[in-house]
Amino acid sequence: MGNSLPNFLVCGTMKGGTTSLYYYLREHPEIYLPTKEEIHFFDLHFGRGIGFYKKYFADVRKGHKAVGEVTPDYMYLEHIPELIHETIPDVKLIFILRNPVDRAYSHYWHAVTKWGVEYLPFERAIEAEPERISRGTAHHRYYSYLDRGKYALQLKRFRKYFDDDQMLVLITEEFKRDPVESLKRVFEFLGVDPNRYNFENLSRRHNIGYSPKIPKLHMTFNRIFGARVGPKELVLGYWYRKMLTLLRRNRKLWELFFTPGYPKLDLGTRDRLMEYFAPYNRELESLLGRKIDAWLRTKQTSQGSLSGSPG
């Protein structure tokens, strides 16, 4: 079945739990996902042609009823829904959405620690975001802390091309509270048998967030080596991020420099961001036709470090 194309995509959101969902779905015998978690075909490799894409699904077998891939950037980038529709118009789409305040803060620490591109404090970084993402470079992806949390706008772009029954929207906090029921919804949506899945292996955390043990030193390295925009500087930044990736693969070595979790988000900043996102969240609730009570509770219950942050 080497000519297979996916019949489902997990499109986002970044830092919403897509990595955990990827690993959970891979455990179902009727679901096929490539060994590479994020393929980035529609945003980075579309010009390489459909043959390039099909190579990722060369190992699909007859028993695989659901064939998919997970790339959370698909949800955010404006041109992606049309490309997906042109290529696989009958595809099913899964979105998992996290409280946008927590998502932004998790994204920030990901940019600090794993990408090595952020060197500003969180409050200054979100103030600088509009100017940064206006550059239209890779920085648009790296620094879009608040912009990615405007979920309704992103979902509307997909609804322009896909029917409602092709789209499943999950809420990260609800998934964490009841992963079994949430996965059953996913399995029903994908048309696979939930009875063939072992629900006892859902406690493992994936893509745990880290922060540097010596923040000022790490931020200095990020500013000098990681946050580069010119052609020559991009090469330097590439090798700096490559070094961080290699370091991360050796957990003992990695944890000499980084610690699980991140500092508590300032309560005043959290409240300001809750207020900032309130109209966008109401727009999302209207679009989905439901309340998202878990995000209202987050204001009182998620003040501490997010050591098990979704990926």
UniProtKB/TrEMBL annotation:
Signal peptide: none
Keyword Glycoprotein: yes
The keyword Secreted is assigned to this record: no
InterPro entries named in the record: NST/OST, P-loop_NTPase, Sulfotransferase_dom
Pfam families linked to this entry: Sulfotransfer_1 (PF00685)
Segments forming domain Sulfotransferase: 6-199
Gene Ontology molecular function, alphabetical: sulfotransferase activity
Keyword annotations: Glycoprotein, Transferase
PANTHER family the UniProt entry points to: BIFUNCTIONAL HEPARAN SULFATE N-DEACETYLASE_N-SULFOTRANSFERASE, HEPARAN SULFATE SULFOTRANSFERASE
Stated name of the protein: Sulfotransferase domain-containing protein
Source organism of the structure: Thermococcus siculi
